[in-house]
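As a warm-up, study this chain.
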Amino acid sequence: MFHVVIPARYAAARLPGKPLLKIGGRPLIQWVWERAQSSGAASVIIATDDVRIQEAAHGFGAECAMTRSTHASGTDRVAEVAEQRHFGDDEVIVNLQGDEPMIEPRLLADLAQALRQRADFDISTALAPVRILQEFLDPNCVKVVRAIDGAALYFSRAPVPWPRDQSEPGRPASFDGAWRHIGIYAYRMRSLRRFTAALPTPLEVAEKLEQLRALEHGMRIYCLALSEAPPAGVDTPADLERLRAHLSGA
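Now compare it with the structure written out below.
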């Protein structure tokens, strides 16, 4: 059994009102919720601090929890909802961002299952192979270095691992074995509570990657390897138009 919590805020910097923007006649957040509903989760809860999102969620039949407006991240919003619902220490909560309308429902279940099967891990997340050099060099594409047992060793915006013997100045000749991070997480309740109670750490601040806080505090993150990255989420107006075109007639 697992739960999905979808953090959604209205004031997105690059795309204001993003959760309520229409795609195929339905708000973006509804697409995400419907995907989560198909995952087999025991509950799917939209977490927001905006009454407009709450009203829209209730309009299409979703459970919605109101949260504080002072949260620094979606993870903090997820944690508040998990506390509101009094989830047990060993219950698994999947944090699904509210701008992932094409996420594969099976991935949510697989992440929860991967964590349940590994008692020595605190968090699970996903990764996929880096396919093109542009991805490897792009600081907006977060790379992951993992151990043989699947444990995350480091997350970075830098191109890692760097192939020392297969590179020219500033340009690798090969990036085989490089992985990109897929920003979806499953937490045990006790781990979610521990993570959100911890202060930001130096590596987190430097890279602007909150998952590094978990590693710096000694938490273990299991990386579920996918053969291909899921479809991209919606971050910009161009992303929105691309998705509308793809789903036209849906």
